Amino acid sequence: MPQYSRPDGDVTRTNIGGGTYASIDETSASDADFVYGNENAAVTFEVSLSNPTAPSVDTGHTFRYRIAKLNGTSVDVDGATVYCTVSLYQGASLIKADAQRTAAGWTSYDLTLSEGEASGISDYNDLRLRFVSPASGGSAASRRAIGISWAELQLPVAYTLAVDTGAYALTGIAAGLKAARKMTAVTGTYELTGNDVTLTYTPAGGSPYTMIAGTGTFTLTGNAVTLRVGRKMVAASGSYTLTGKDAALKVARKMVAAAGTYVLTGQAAALKVARKMTAAAGTYTLTGISAGLKAGRKLAAAVGAFVLTGNNVHLKGNRKMSAQSGSFALTGISTALRVARKLAAGVGSFVLTGSAVTLTYTETSVVSVRGRVVGSDAALNNTAGADAAVHKVTGGDAKAPYS
After folding, report:
1. Cβ atoms 67, 84 nearer than 8 A
2. C-alpha pair distances (Å), 219 with each of 41, 192, 195
3. Is residue 232 part of a domain?
């Protein structure tokens, strides 16, 4: 959306019969009031313009105006010819002049600046519009004057984006040295090579003098570093911070930002030795900028679901376990009723499906047996006495008594 700068003061009023800047500062063109010049007189009418926000681009600079030929204070297309030239100034410096127009009935004109012309504006708070109309001449009955009913300058809106300081972290495996070792550095050298330079000087009326510069060298002193023992070193994770200057918005505007993505690139690392690892289910957090709603609306949300992913866990030992009934919670967003109504609910049911598991144990000399299933992946430990036997199966997420 553009911004507008309109007349806000009189600067020059040469041979003006009536009206002021307030007669031509309407938001929309209106011929209800106007500025008019004296008949058969050279008219100069210059107005200052309201202070806009300086645009950040040099396109979209257009000034508009509306003029007519008047007989007194009435439009009259007859009589002597009336001309008018309108120009945009910054202070006393001309920015752009429109072609000379011939006034008749109320007519609107506009002129757009080129980017080069707009770039010549350095102070948007000192812009002016100047109307110049020469004397019409002619007989007393045919003399006429210029009328001006409206003017404005259209400019692009200045947008500035505030950039927050960003950062990202380089991740990896942090590790220490396997062994501490001292490294002894020996002295090293290098040689600066080039062309020999000859300097010749000949004084007036005398013999020339020649100075020959030979190749020079210099020595870089210090200890050259050599490893006494070759060791593998694992590099710790590093990080750096992107710094900058926060920029404030000159004009506040709401912008609806779509979700974006980025790809983390790098080198895939291969395992030196293949090992089986039991991995627990993990989570990650989606970060970003919360988007505000442009309008508040109630949404009826259905219950959702999600899938817990991860690696299957294999038991070290194959054992039969009698599992108790379990339960799970259905999570999601509760849906509120938009209108309260009584509902007659019938009896419902659901079926827990799966394989029936039985745990069989035979002990000929058992007086009593106690057993429990607990914990994670494990093995079956069995101890039996003459009078009692205790059996423990360690494994997954369930507890199941058996007898």
Report:
1. yes
2. 89, 9, 19
3. no
3-state secondary structure of 147: strand
Domain that holds residue 79: 3-155
Domain end among 122, 155, 188: 155
262: nearest Cα among 168, 161, 171? 168
Q: For strand 167-169 and strand 239-241, is the pairing parallel, antiparallel, or unpaired?
A: antiparallel
How many domains, the chain? 2
Task: Please give the model's pTM, rounded to 2 decimal places.
Answer: 0.43
Tell whether 234 is covered by a domain. no
b/e code 169-206 from CB counts within 10 Å (16+ = b): eeeeeeeeeeeeeeeeeeeeeeeeeeeeeeeeeeeeee
For residue 336, CA distances in Å to 68, 269, 306, 333 come to 66, 49, 21, 9
Please name the residue that has the structure tokens 């002016």.
128
Q: What is the DSSP letter of 370?
A: E
Distance CA 322, CA 17 (A): 108
Give a yes or no: residue 248 inside a domain: no
What's the pLDDT score for residue 367?
41
CATH number at residue 50: 2.60.120.260
Show Cβ contacts of residue 102 under 8 Å, excluding neighbours closer than 6 positions. 81, 82, 83
Rounded mean pLDDT, 271-295: 74
Q: Residue 65: its pLDDT value, please?
A: 97
pLDDT in tens, 69-111: 999 999 999 999 999 999 999 999 999 999 999 999 999 999 9
Q: Is the pLDDT confidence value at 123 over 80?
A: yes
CA distance 66 to 106: 6
Largest Cα–Cα separation, the chain: 143
End-of-domain residue from the set 155, 172, 200: 155
Which H or E run contains 115? helix 115-118
Q: Among residues 172, 351, 384, which one has the least CA distance to residue 267?
A: 172
The more confident residue out of 36 and 293 is 36
The Cα–Cα gap between 396 and 321 comes to: 10
Using CA atoms, how far apart are residues 256 and 244, in angstroms rounded to an integer? 24
The Cα 14–Cα 43 span in angstroms is: 5
- Inside any domain, residue 321: no
